[in-house]
Amino acid sequence: MSVRAMKPRQRLKLRVAFIASEVVPFAKTGGLADVAGSLPPALAGLGIDVRTVMPKYRQVIAEHNTIQIGKDLAVDFIEYRKYFDREALYGDRFGDYPDNLERFTYFCKSVLTHLKTIDFKPDIIHCNDWQSALIPVYLKTTFKDDPFFARTRSMLTIHNLAYQGLFDKGLFPTLGLDGRYFGIDGLEFYDKINLLKGGILFADGITTVSPSYAQEIQTKEFGCGLEGVLRTRANDLEGVINGIDYRVWDPATDTHIARQFTVRTLSDKGFNKVDLQRTAALKVDRQIPVFGIISRLADQKGLDLISAIVTDLLKKDIQLVILGTGEDKYHLLYEKMAKLNPGKVSINLRFDATLAKKIYAGCDFFLMPSRYEPCGLGQMISMRYGTIPIVRLTGGLRDTVSDAGDDGSRGNGFTFTAYEAPALRDAVMRALAAFKNKKVWRKLQVRAMSCDFSWERSALRYAELYAKLLRKRC
Ligand code: ADP
After folding, report:
1. Which of 1, 30, 418, 435 is the most interior residue, by most CB within 10 Å?
2. Which class for 328: exposed (0-12), middle (13-18), buried (19 or more C-beta within 10 A)?
3. pLDDT tens digits along 228-240
4. pTM reported for the whole predicted model
């Protein structure tokens, strides 16, 4: 019987240790923390016994080193003040902490000894990104003959291949591994230590956060130098799309927005548009199409394409709200754009969770023309709020957004393929044209809002992959 066909309580009696260097609500710098905060509860909902393990950073507000969250879910913190009681997670304004290799080597080894101490014998140790990528390596080396882990399988999830955990080769002794593991078939990468590469080679199973990204990272264009290594593991590599937490992202219950709404009360979305226009100091007018961007201001996000078309676009009667932080060049550019277009462009260079919700709820369109996108959450959240995404077909955007066609009668968004400004402009123009036909637009919004991007769906897929790993000889 497949996992999907089982009733919740019948499902696999599995034990999973979920290891992450950041977990919402305890510590967050990026999307990994969202996944690590949402996937384990969804797995526990399937009856899987889950323990999440993370470092006890200064930011972690917890009296004890274990928090029991539900019958099948606990979070454990690895405490060591010298390494984790610091201002930030990975570095400060001077750059990455110079002892990051030492810190995360300590974390990985401690996770394994901790599981033994509390007698939590996992079927699966699910690791995430370079910070916990050494665990699969240790399971096959240092802990190879440890009977406690004899049946344990490891899974490594890659959230963004661009971050690999690269360190000077002189630090290799820190890992406590035999020197032969610093080679082309081991952790060596262009004469440096590459922790993610170690995880990719040693993990029993590998996943990344969308099926398209799983394919893309095996190519030179997206593989960040690891495409060859990933190709050697192609049979063990799968893409599972992230979910969004519907308890947080739901226009029917969201208390941060001006007026709650559902597919049946979609016209109430208009109150949120007016509220956003007031909050963002834009001209208040429900008829004006409003575009939103909520993003790290980084080259990955395709902001140069937006810069290339924005002057032309602003000649039309449209409005643009941007919320984000990141590279200085974008800060300067957008501040200038706002000055030149008062009442039309609103620039908000900060992290602001409440304004983000107002933007998702109040805009008509959500722009995400990413150069690459492992999964992307913004497009899924915006759809949930009836805000139509305009995206470039890459990675998770390709797997979640389908084109509405020239007349807006299909799909759930507007898409383009070539990483070129005219292609983005074309998608924007088609979106603006469809927006004019209120009936068509309403139907498109309903289709977008009705998509299922729940964590439950993704958790089922992970459960199936865990079961597959346990059946496999490793
Ligand atoms: P990435 O993880 O590459 O930054 P994602 O689309 O996967 O991009 O996730 C970004 C998440 O962070 C989304 O939930 C988005 O709403 C949120 N976000 C990004 N920038 C801001 C900001 N300045 N203020 C509030 N939320 C933000």
Report:
1. 435
2. exposed
3. 999 999 999 999 9
4. 0.93
The fourth-level CATH superfamily of domain 3-243+455-471 is Glycogen Phosphorylase B; (3.40.50.2000)
> For residue 365, which amino acid is it?
F
Residues 332-385 pLDDT 10s: 999 999 999 999 999 999 999 999 999 999 999 999 999 999 999 999 999 999
Residue pair 296/308 in contact by the 8 Å Cβ criterion: no
**CATH number given to 266-449:** 3.40.50.2000
Domain ranges for the chain, please list them. Answer: 3-243+455-471, 266-449
Q: Could you tell me if residue 411 is left (phi over 0), alpha (psi between -120 and 50 degrees) or otherwise beta?
A: left
Ligand 1 and 368: CB distance under 6 A: no
Does the beta carbon of 295 lie inside 6 Å of ligand 1? Answer: yes
Nearest atom of ligand 1 to the alpha carbon of 348: 23
Question: Would you say the CATH fold of 266-449 matches that of 3-243+455-471?
Answer: yes
296 pocket-lining for ligand 1 (C-beta < 6 Å): yes
Rounded Cα distance, 86 and 64, in Å: 18
